[in-house]
């Protein structure tokens, strides 16, 4: 009973720590030991795994926005008018 309680406390401590450091993990700002700590927890925690996957998709989407050429409203209207001819 005590082992289970202590195991649960340790799991929750790792859960909170990992959740607080996922962004730093993705940014490559953690040292090797801390990266391993995140990866070990994400490997057993479905919640943290989903959060990490969501953060990765969000970052990929943001990078895609920056890769697309930016056109002004006027340029977009002019392009559409030209396409109609």
* Structural class by helix and strand composition: mainly alpha
Helix proportion of residues, in percent? over 70%
**Average pLDDT rating:** 86
How many extended strands?
Answer: 0
Low-confidence stretches: none
> Tell me, what's the shape?
elongated
Instruction: Please describe the biggest sheet, giving its number of strands, its sense, and whether it closes into a barrel.
Output: none
Please write the string of helix (H) and strand (E) elements. Answer: HHHH
What does this structure look like?
There is one protein chain. This protein is mainly α and 85 residues long. It has one domain (2-84). The chain contains four helices and no strands. Helix 1 (2-26) runs parallel beside helix 3. The N and C termini lie far apart (78 Å).
Descriptive keywords:
85 residues, mainly alpha, 4 helices
Question: What is the topology?
Answer:
Blueprint: H1 2-26, H2 32-44, H3 46-67, H4 73-84
Helix pairs in contact: 1-2, 1-3, 2-3
In short:
The chain is built from four helices and no strands. The chain is mainly α and 85 residues long.
């Amino acid at each position: 009973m005590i082992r289970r309680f202590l195991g649960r406390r340790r799991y929750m401590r790792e859960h909170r720590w990992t959740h607080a450091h996922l962004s730093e993990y993705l940014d490559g700002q953690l040292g090797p030991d801390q990266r391993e700590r995140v990866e070990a927890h994400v490997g057993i925690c479905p919640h943290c795994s989903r959060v990490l996957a969501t953060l990765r998709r969000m970052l990929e989407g943001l990078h895609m926005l920056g890769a697309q050429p930016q056109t002004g409203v006027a340029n977009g209207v002019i392009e559409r008018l030209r396409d109609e001819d």
